[in-house]
Amino acid sequence: MKVEELKYDEKGLIPAIVQDAATKEVLTLAYMNKESLEKSLQTGETWFYSRSRQELWHKGATSGNTQQIVEIKYDCDQDALVVCVKPNGPACHNGTNSCFVESVYQNKEAIESNVSDYQILANLEKIIEERDISRPEDTYTTYLFEKGVDKILKKVGEEAAEVIIAAKNRDAEELKWEASDLIYHLFVLLREQKLPFSDILKVLEARHEEKQGK
Fold first, then answer.
1. Is 123 exposed, middle or buried (0-12, 13-18, 19+ CB in 10 A)?
2. pLDDT tens across 74-129, in order?
3. Which residues, in sequence order, are bridge partners of residue 83?
4. Global pTM value
5. How far apart are CA 84 and CA 91, in angstroms?
6. Is residue 100 a contact partner of residue 26, using CB atoms and an 8 Å limit?
7. 174: which of 9, 61, 89, 112 lies 20 to 30 Å off by Cα?
8. What HEC string does 119-177 produce?
């Protein structure tokens, strides 16, 4: 499929759904024209067309939150794109990983029964992100963010010590609970530091590729 063979609308645009290649989370909906798509293919990073400014824009040119393209797919009607990327920071101008953070409807039972191992971590990161933004009263996550980094660091240290004790005692039941607490508090710390979990995955991936090459 050539760029010019895609079906653009009357304004020469085609919708581009941007998706995290690792987590499969939908990050944003943007639009491309032939020129921005060609630039995306040439540079390996996302370029879009701004309908409000009527000009091309390179995602992350100002913020640094670029998106490395993994794959671009088109639908059966050839009039929409899915752009799978490795994001280098938040996709949304509000500072969130995704532009889609609020739900109109949730079937929690269905969600819980259809969650992959990694998706549980992605969901945890999203919930913590939402708590940081909205700061609802009487929630433990809000309490941690309002107390600040010193309190969060203290909790990470305490939970790490509890993990060590549980492991030393060979108490698997206690260990799984303490490890869960440690992961939660670590995610709170990552959010406080504005460090997406995807950056951690990138480091692990790079180390894996390095070892594979040896």
1. middle
2. 999 999 999 999 998 889 988 888 898 888 887 777 666 655 667 788 889 989 99
3. 18, 72
4. 0.60
5. 13
6. yes
7. 112
8. HHHHHHHHHHHHHHHHCCCCCHHHHHHHHCHHHHHHHHHHHHHHHHHHHHCCCHHHHHH
